[in-house]
Amino acid sequence: MLFRQLFDQNTGTYTYLIASQSKDAVLVDPVVEQVERDRKLIEELGLTLRYCLETHIHADHITGTAKLRELTGCQGVVPENANATCADRFIRDGETLQIGDVRIQAIATPGHTDSHFAYLINDTHLLTGDALFIRGCGRTDFQSGNAGTLYDSVTQRLFTLPDDTLVYPGHDYRGHTVSTIGEEKQWNPRFVGRTRDSFIEFMNNLNLPNPQKIMEAVPANERCGNLLAV
Questions:
Q1: Is there a contact between 105 and 120 (Cβ–Cβ < 8 Å)?
Q2: Using CA atoms, how far apart are residues 230 and 86, in angstroms rounded to an integer?
Q3: Run means of pLDDT, 10 residues per run, the chain, 230 residues
Q4: Residue 225 region, left (φ>0) first, then alpha (ψ -120 to 50), else beta?
């Protein structure tokens, strides 16, 4: 399996490129400003992009899916119940997306938004999106987010995976690139030592400013990254 972690400095966003031995590829959470970087890398590696896969409807950046669909003919895939009727395909909780020898299992992890998914690649690499960060987690104060639901998603779904499962988050702002489920169970301050109620109280009092691009990013991402209304 080919696995690459790509970074957008402006938004702290990770995009993941995954490819099989047969050269079929998937991009998870592409960023529109990085489409040319991603397209060039895919071309250099001799890959065929089959899918752009979203963990959720993003509020901090516009997805690159629309441009990549236009450039490569790939399909855009979003979690079931996500408000993106332009998607080519919706993926369900527990469903598997197979590309050659790569198996991508969808795991519903609502809480950051109401239709957030994580993806487990070949049972070893977990793309956690905004549900679980390295020593943190995504906020829950907009897009139908719910702190109690996020606590349940992380503790009852992600933390039940084997401790050596590699954790690759959707964002990082401190230079971390990878962790493990065991490490986060031991050291993540959002969850260690907190009950469900204390987690809800903590998350509901973060008082964070809105992401700078929220007004343009959410409606654009509901159109799969198309910048103009259709």
A1: yes
A2: 10
A3: 97 97 97 97 98 93 94 96 89 97 98 96 98 97 92 98 98 96 98 97 90 79 70
A4: left
